[in-house]
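This is your field. Pick holes in the following sequence-structure pair:
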Amino acid sequence: MHRKILLSLAFGLVAPALLAQETAPSLSAGDTAWMLMATALVMLMTPAGLALFYGGLSNSKSALNTVGMSYISFCVASVAWVLVGYSLAFGTGNAWIGAWDTWMLENIKINDLQGTIPTLLFVVFQGTFAAIAVAIVSGAVVERVKFSFWAVFSFLWVLLVYSPITHWVWGGGILSGSGELDFAGGTVIHINAGVAGLVLAILLGKRKNFGNGGEKPLSLKLTVLGSALLWFGWFGFNAGSALGANATAANAMLVTNVAASVGGLAWILIEWAYRKKPSLLGVSSGVVSGLVGITPACGFVSVSGALAIGFVSGLVGYFGAVKLKSLLKYDDTLDAFGIHGLVGIWGSLATGIFANPAINPNAVGLLYGNPSQVAVQLIAVLVTLAYSALATLVVYFISALITRGARVEESLERAGLDEAYHGERGFNIHTS
C-alpha cells in the first residue's frame, strides 16, 4: 500500500514535466529541411524567374535594365527586410504596425523557433516574399524609370507599404483577427504590388513610344523560360506557406499546379477565339495568372476549387492585360496590374467562395454554407487597395525628391536604357 502511494505521488510530480515536454514546440528536421528548400525556390523566382519573364518582354534596348530592376529589387528588399522590415511586419506591436523589438533581428536567438522551424529560417522565407512583391511592381514602369529612383523606392516601399500590410494580415494586425483567408499572399503580395504598379505607371506617365507599336519583345523564349521558373518556384511560395512538410503543403502544391495549368489553357483558348492564333506568350501569361489566383486559396481549397479559380484567373488576366489596358490606355508596361492586381482580387474573393472545410476546418466558404466569408474577403481587398495606393503615392514623392526625379531623360529613353544608362548591352552580337 505504501509503495502504491509513493508511486502515485512520484507520478503526480513527474507527469506535469513529461506533459510539458510533449506539448512544448520542438525543432522538426523534416519541416526545417523542407522550408530550407522552399525558401530557395522562392528566391529563384525574383532574380531568375521574374527577371527573365519581364526581360524577354522588354524591348531590345532596355531588356538588361529590366532584368536589373528585378535583380536589384531582391538585393534591396533583402537588406530592408533584415534591418527593420521583418520587425515592422512580425514584431510585437499594435493593430497597425509591429514594434522595433527585432530591429536588425535583435532578440532573435539562433535556437528560437517559429512553430517547428528556426525563427531565422522563417525570417529569410518571408524576406523572399517581400523581394518578389516589390519586383512585381517594377514591371509596370520599366523602360522609363531611373535606376537610382527604383533602388530608393524599393527600400522605402518594403518598409512603408509591404511591411504594414503584412503585419495586418499575418502579423497580428487589424486583418489578422477578421477571419480573412490569405494563405500565401493574395492581398499581401499580388493586390498590393499590382495596385502599386498602376499608381507608379500613372504618376510616371506613358512611354514615348506607347501606342505606336513600339518595339517588339526581345525574346519570347526568355519569357517562356521565366514563366517556367516562376511556376517551379511557386511550389515553394505556396506549399512553403504551410511552414512544414505536411498534408497542407502537399495539397497546396497540388492545387497550385492544377490552377497554373488550367489558367494557361483558359488564356490560350480565349486568345484563340479572339485572335485566331494561340501564342506562347498567351499560355505563359495564363500560367502566371493561374498561379496568382490560387495563391491566397491554396491552403483552403480542393482540386475542384483550383480548377474554377485557375480557369477564371486566365480569363481575368487576359481581359485585364489586353482588353482593359487597351480600353483605358494606361501604360502598365508588363501588366503588373492586370495579371497581379486584378487576378489577385479575383483570387482573394474566390477564396471566400471555394474555401473547403474538408481541407481546413477553420476555412468555410460560400459554397459550404458561409456566405459571410466573401464579405470578409472583400473588406480585406478594399483595405489593401486603399492603403497600397495612398502609401505608394507618398513613397513615390519621397523617392523622387531624394533622387531628383523618377523618370529618365527623354534622350536616354529613346536611345534605350541598356547602353545609354548602364553602358552595357543584353546581347553583344558581332557580325563579320
Notes: The two ends are 103 Å apart (CA to CA). DSSP finds 14 helices and two strands in the chain. The first helix runs from residue 2 to 23.
